[in-house]
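As promised in the previous annual report, we have extended the structural survey to additional targets. Below is the entry for Adenine DNA glycosylase.
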Amino acid sequence: MNFSKTLITWYLQNKRDLPWRNTSDAYYIWLSEIMLQQTRVAQGLPYFLAFTKTFPTVFDLANADEEQVLKLWQGLGYYSRARNLHATAKQVAFEENGKFPNHYKALLKLKGIGEYTAAAIASFSYNEAVPVVDGNVYRVLSRYFNIETDIASRKAKKEFTQLATELIDVEQPALFNQAIMEFGALQCVPKSPDCANCPLNNSCLAFGMKKVDQLPVKLKKTTIKNRYLNYLLILDSENKSIANKRTSKGIWQNLYELPLIETTQSENDSVIISKIKDEFPETESITLLDSENRIHKLSHQHLHIRFWKLELNKVFEVGFTYSELMQLPFPIVLHNFLENNAY
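The corresponding structure token record, generated without further manual editing, is:
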């Protein structure tokens, strides 16, 4: 069986109609690839449409204020992608005259573009015969060829990229890359794939050896850190609030947040109230808005969040009205809280 031709035939019959597949414009290809990293298509599609409407060219994105970019990205997560996206747009607009380099090695020189994204742009925009290797491709290849290499190991990328290079249809590289990625997304899915109706089942080693649910192998476990965050919605006597911009590196850099009391463990209400009074002695009333912890899960952290409302007998020098606050880029968990707690 010809692996590449079978995949391409399947793809042409089953592919989803997605806007970035109807263009070879490197700007749109790049946007989609950055947005879809660690993000499902269903979640990323509305953001892609919003970005291309607001920033139809790389110059529009480059000239935008970072806060506008972060606000539009709000809810997509992994906000470093948005900051890198903005930096790359500036580099392309102002150093490359708005044109993305037209081959893989030159694309790698752009800030924020790694091997995967460079290969995607080179392949989909310029039809260069370089393989695009993502999680879907790892899964398809590991199952079809019964590869037990730990995909979290250092040698995995080189091994799978080499295999994909040997398999790629050099006459139709973009089509092959789209096909194998889509096959992993729709057919060779992580859990309970429909192997009985798979066009590759006659030659798939994992299927023949009843090992589909054991591949790909991923041994590295992510260490999860628990953090306990008490956010304070503080209102002054004019019903204005305050927010701070996170400038330190780490989660949510350059996004806004409400004043925060963080503890190393879950504390009872009296402990938090005492800390609030120590930090804001002008407080007249303190209300816990939600007695249950909201657990916001990030890739390496679980954030245990509670929200408190404070009323102060003072006027902030710089305070935000509710409408002004809602214009700022917040992490989605804070945005959703504010949206549901208008003041």
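Residues 80-95 form the longest helix (16 residues). The chain has 15 helices and seven strands. These points will be discussed at the next consortium meeting with the crystallography subgroup.
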